[in-house]
Specification:
A hairpin with a 7-residue loop joins strand 9 and strand 10. By secondary structure, this protein is mainly beta. The protein has a single domain, classed as monomeric porin ompg (Porin). The protein has a 12-stranded antiparallel β-barrel. It contains 3 helices and 15 strands.
Length: about 325
Amino acid sequence: MKPPATLIRQLLLAGLCALPALAVARPVTPFYTHDQSPLAELYGLPALQEARLLNAGEQRYRLVAELANNYTVGKAENEELLFDGETTRVVLDFAGHLGPRLEWGLQIPYVNHSPGVLDGLIRRWHDAFGLPQGGRERAPDERLDYHYVRNGETQFEQRLPSEGLGDIRLGGGWQLIQPREGQENALALRASVKFPTGDSTLLHGNGGTDLALWLSGARGGYGLGVSGSVFAGVGMLLMERGDVLPEQQRQRVAFGSLGAGAWLHPSLSLKLQLDYHGALYRDSELTQLAQDTLQLSMGGSLRLIKYTEIELGVMEDVAVGTAPDVVFHLAVTVSE
């Protein structure tokens, strides 16, 4: 009889060798997320979404919850900005087949601004990994204070907790390259229109209508095996002048995403994603307003039951100060 340690090693090796065979050739989809900074989430920046559109008879239901913890201070000669608090955004997303190579979608967001209940946890996290606190250690815990002062005048402020409906979006897609049987190579042209249904005085919306147009593509392989995917997208956001910093607001910005992932097991995938967008405001010396944004998303998906997938992720600001310090992401998707 083989020693237990030897037997265990052989079983582990056999299991690892079997993973590629167990993995299935289905695409790893992008994180359903975009910049959740208090000012960026007001606009119609879209999530990249899948490159493969729904086929006839298919529908998709998605519930997304994101908790963004913000702490950043900006100071210049005539400007002062503070984002200290948490913003929770819950989105109900529906999509269905519209016609040959066409898809429709509807997104209904609910926004909550509240004091930062995770401040202590994030401060300890930074200490444990030797990350800079950026002034967190001197700030009071559980405070909500979003404000911006320019030339001595307060341009906006949010110091009282609030919650309510955000800006509703309608979306659509056109399949430019249809994935073949057993493959996942695909390209889609997507669009969304954001309507001013949220209260701009509470930073639940920006008071304007936005149009986003982008390409979403995916391809399998690239050294990740049959279960691996590379996905990317690029587009343009056109923004009507809204109620929040209207004189400084840009009216068009470019955005893009790049990511990759692989199914390590039929029920488990891991993925990374970089999201970029241009600065939403001008005529400012503050990083938080006038610098381009780069955000990294890390996590994966669990498929526990048929047609249902749970996506978990953590988002960090690669370009420090341009996005929330950390965002905790959860999405539950049912496709049928």
